[in-house]
């Protein structure tokens, strides 16, 4: 009976994730600026001479000079337990990761922001607290030796809480 309960809980967890997940293409330029394009709005990506062109389903085209691209990648982002009117937002990338990943976050609060990484069983593996003294987009790097698996990242700025999923595949 316990095994069935665990399997049912995992199925419900995956169902919640899949309803809140968005697949996107990310392009990061050498200046660190990231452009996210939802995969559903991408028709195709082509290369022409020294340019990368992302053709969208609405007919528009995003263009980058390849020498100005630091990296581009595909990622699945989730918003598990994220409230509609939350004053904190974040993006974890690349996701899946080979062990190192970044979290871009933005909050309307000047409260310290805490980042915790949990196993699916609820064991906290790492916690960092960043004293947030300014508004705007911030980035935090995680370079850890987590084994392959799925982890939950909890981001909290005092009154607001977001939980996100990160997958490690080495």
User: Distance N terminus to C terminus?
Assistant: 33 Å
Number of E-state strands: 13
Strand order of the largest sheet: 10-9-12-13
Q: What's the number of helices?
A: 1
Mean pLDDT: 78
| Run of helices and strands | HEEEEEEEEEEEEE
Work out the helicity level: 10-25%
**Structural class assignment:** mainly beta
Describe this structure in words.
With 170 residues, this protein is mainly β. The chain folds into 2 domains: 56 residues, Roll (SH3 type barrels), CATH 2.30.30; 91 residues, Sandwich (Immunoglobulin-like), CATH 2.60.40.3080. 11% of the residues lie in helices and 53% in strands. The protein has 1 helix and 13 strands. A 4-stranded antiparallel β-sheet has the order 10-9-12-13, with no helix packed on it. A hairpin with a 4-residue loop joins strand 12 and strand 13. The N terminus is likely disordered.
């Amino acid at each position: 009976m316990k095994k069935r309960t665990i399997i049912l809980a995992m199925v419900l967890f995956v169902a919640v994730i899949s309803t809140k997940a968005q697949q996107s293409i990310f392009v990061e330029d050498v200046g660190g600026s990231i452009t996210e394009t939802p995969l559903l709005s991408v028709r195709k990506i082509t290369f022409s001479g020294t340019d990368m062109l992302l053709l969208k389903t609405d007919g528009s085209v995003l263009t980058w000079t390849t020498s100005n691209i630091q990296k581009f990648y595909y990622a699945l982002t989730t918003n598990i337990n994220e409230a509609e009117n939350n004053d904190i937002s974040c993006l974890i990338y690349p996701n899946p990761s080979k062990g190192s990943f970044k979290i871009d976050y933005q909050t309307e609060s000047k409260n310290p922001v805490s980042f915790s990484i949990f196993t699916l069983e609820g064991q906290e593996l790492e916690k960092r607290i960043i004293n947030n003294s300014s508004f705007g987009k911030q980035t935090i790097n995680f370079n850890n030796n987590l084994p392959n698996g799925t982890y939950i990242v909890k981001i909290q700025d005092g009154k607001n809480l977001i939980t996100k999923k990160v997958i490690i595949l080495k």
